[in-house]
Write a structure and sequence with these properties.
Elements (H helix, E strand, L loop, with lengths): L3 H13 L9 H11 L5 H13 L4 H44 L3 H28 L8 H11 L5 H25 L1
């Protein structure tokens, strides 16, 4: 049986060793939640990610809440969330206390510039893994690639892109339903 302490420790580790925000922690979260603790199966993890992304709030906190609640109810959700945010909050407080003395430091700037490519890789890695698990094919990649290009190159608001994708999915679903009902 999963304990509150186990949830706290797992999500503390996730929060402590992740640079780059919620999406960069997906590989570590998957390893802890799916591979090590077996709290969720791989498909269940993908489903939880889809829900966590669509909910308001911070992705990592939403995932911690889901996993913690599923394992130990409200107390488990609290343990997982507190574990997930404790280290980042502590690190931010320490950085804020000493920021002025590091601001403009060439060595610190170089370290952060070196971290950037690693963060990009940490975000790209779960995208490829999720695409494989969700059985996304190159023909399906048109929508996310198109959405990324709309936002990046044309400056279209992500909200507009999400609304357009939702409308497109609705139209596709209605047309697919109509075709199957005509048969």
């Amino acid at each position: 049986m999963t304990t509150h302490a186990a949830l706290f420790r797992a999500f503390f580790k996730i929060g402590m060793f992740t640079l780059g925000g919620g999406y960069a922690m997906i590989p570590l979260m998957e390893r802890e939640v799916v591979d090590r603790a077996h709290w969720l199966g791989r498909q269940e993890f993908l489903d939880a990610m889809a829900v966590a992304q669509s909910m308001p709030g911070i992705f990592a906190v939403n995932m911690a809440t889901h996993v913690g609640y599923q394992q130990r109810g409200v107390g488990g959700a609290l343990a997982a969330v507190l574990g997930n945010i404790a280290a980042p909050i502590g690190i931010m407080v320490l950085l804020a206390m000493f920021f002025r003395s590091f601001a403009g430091n060439h060595l610190v700037d170089s370290v952060f510039k070196g971290i950037r490519p690693a963060v990009v890789a940490l975000i790209a890695s779960p995208v490829v893994g999720m695409a494989r698990t969700a059985r996304v094919r190159w023909s399906n990649a048109v929508v996310p690639v198109g959405a990324a290009l709309l936002v990046w190159l044309l400056g279209v608001s992500p909200i507009v892109v999400v609304l357009l994708a939702a409308a497109g999915g609705l139209v596709h679903g209605l047309l697919s339903h109509r075709k199957t009902s005509e048969r």
